[in-house]
Structure prediction request, 254 residues.
Amino acid sequence: MPDSLNDKITLVTGAGSGIGRATSLVLAREGATIAVSDIDADGGEETLSAIKDMGGDGMFVHADVSRPADVEAMVGAVIQAYGRLDCAYNNAGIEGYWGGRLHEYPEDTFDRLIDINVKGVWLCLKYEIPEMLKQGGGAIVNTASAAGLVGSRRLSVYSASKHAVVGLTKSAALEYAADNIRVNAVCPGIIDTPMMDRLVEGRDDYAAAIPTRQPIGRKGTPNEIAEAVAWLCSDAASLVTGLAMAVDGAFTAQ
Ligand SMILES: NC(=O)c1ccc[n+]([C@@H]2O[C@H](COP(=O)([O-])OP(=O)(O)OC[C@H]3O[C@@H](n4cnc5c(N)ncnc54)[C@H](O)[C@@H]3O)[C@@H](O)[C@H]2O)c1
Prediction:
C-alpha cells in the first residue's frame, strides 16, 4: 500500500512504546503526518525522532488519556498545528495486571484500568469526532484486544475494559457511518512489547504456554498490528466500519 495515507493528519495515542510506536512509523512510511501522543514524554520524543530519521513529519503532544482536559488539549493542539484530523489511532492502554482472580481484584486498580482503557478511548472519540464531523469524514481505529473478544483468566478487568472498547467502537460506527466517519478496532493477540514483558515477568508457565495459546506458534510483532491499523485507516478499507479485527494468529479462532 505505498503512500496509502499521503498527506493524512494522524493522531496516535500511546505512541511512545510498543504497538503505538510501531504503528506511528508504519503510518509515517505510508505518507501520514503523525501527532505522537503519550503520557511518557521521553518515549514520545523517541518515536518522533525515529519518524524524522525516516524523513517523516510530526509533532509530540503530551497527554494522559484519562484526563479530559489533556485529551481536549491534545486534539486542539493537532487542529492548531495542522488545521484538521484525518485519522486517529486510540491505542494507549495499560494491563492493570493483578495476578489474582476477579473477587480478589483491588478496587483502585480496577478504577485506574477503566479510567485509562475505557474512559480514555471514549474521551478521545468525544474530542476527535467533532473535528471529523466539521471536515466531512475521517477514520478512527481503537486498540481493543483478543481479550476484548473472549474472556481471560487472571486478566478479568483488563478483558472487561477491552470488551468495552469493542462496544464503543461498534456503537460509534453505527452513529457516525452516515457522516463518513469509519470507526474500527484492532484486537491484538499476544504481541512482543514492553507490556507483554511485564505480563510474563516471573511467570515462566505463562511464557512457555504462549505457542499453544496462540496457534500460530509464536508471539506477534508490533509491526504486524501496525500494518492492520494502516489498512483500516486507509481508503482501501472504505467499506469497513464497526469491525473488531482480530490480529492474533488464530488465538480467538479456538
Ligand atoms: N502487547 C500485547 O500483547 C497486547 C495485546 C492486546 C492489546 N494490547 C493493547 O495494545 C495497546 C498498546 O500496548 P503495548 O503492548 O504497546 O504496551 P506498551 O506498554 O508498550 O505501550 C503502551 C503505551 O501507552 C502509554 N500510556 C499508558 N497509559 C497512558 C495514559 N494514561 N495516557 C497516555 N498514554 C498512556 C505508555 O506510556 C506506553 O507508551 C494497549 O491498549 C494494550 O492494551 C496489547
The first helix runs from residue 18 to 29. The first strand starts at residue 9 and ends at 13. The chain has a mean pLDDT of 96.
